[in-house]
Amino acid sequence: MKTHRLQTRLWLPQPRDRIFQFFADPFNLERLTPDWLRFETLTKQTTEIREGVLLDYRLRIRGLPIRWQSRIADWNPPHRFVDRQTKGPYRLWVHEHTFVEDKDGTLVGDDVQYAVPGGRLVQKFLVAPDLDRIFKYRHQVLQTLFNPGNKAARGVDADPF
């Protein structure tokens, strides 16, 4: 199975505990996901995030309805957590989220290891461009929520909680 890797970093001028608290709420993933995916969290709002917890979602990828389930494989607040797809569109999806105190703020890291069905052409022309758009959107939302003075962040609701 051919695997691919996506790594992003974003510095936000907020304390690590505040940033981690936002990511610890699985319903905030809806805010970080572009509308064109029609992403919806199905897990109960009262679910406490910890290692082993299963999270269920519904979305549309290129118009096709998809159910996605991930398991929290590692939970280490406020430093990192890892979610691993147990059901969904990828052959493999392991997403490590890291939160590092840096220069009076927090460096938010995403490291995704994934494999796609359909091979190289599906990866190059469909999956990679979609993931690029999704993570650019995610960064824009995070900038608007946690660094509202940044000129690059516009047009997103600025109340993180």
Under CATH at level 1, the class stands as Alpha Beta
| Tally of DSSP helical segments | 3
**Broad structural category:** alpha+beta
The overall pLDDT, averaged over residues, is 92
Proportion of beta-strand residues? 35-45%
Q: How many distinct domains?
A: 1
Tally of strands: 7
Note the overall shape. Answer: globular
At CATH level 3, the topology is Alpha-D-Glucose-1,6-Bisphosphate, Chain A, domain 4
The H-and-E topology, N to C, reads as EHHEEEEEEH
- State the CATH architecture: 2-Layer Sandwich
CATH superfamily: START domain
Calculate the terminal CA-CA distance, rounded to whole Å. Answer: 40 Å
Can you list the strand order of the major beta sheet?
A: 1-7-6-5-4-3-2
Poorly predicted sequence stretches spanning 5 or more consecutive residues: 153-159
Helix content: 10-25%
Radius of gyration over C-alpha positions, nearest whole angstrom: 15 Å
Structure description:
By secondary structure, the protein is an alpha+beta fold. The chain has one domain (4-146): START domain (Alpha-D-Glucose-1,6-Bisphosphate, Chain A, domain 4). The protein contains three helices and seven strands, in the order βααββββββα. The protein has helices at residues 16-23, 28-31, 120-146, and strands spanning 4-12, 40-41, 54-61, 64-76, 80-87, 92-102, 105-115. A seven-stranded antiparallel β-sheet has the order 1-7-6-5-4-3-2, with helices on one face. The longest helix has 27 residues, at 120-146.
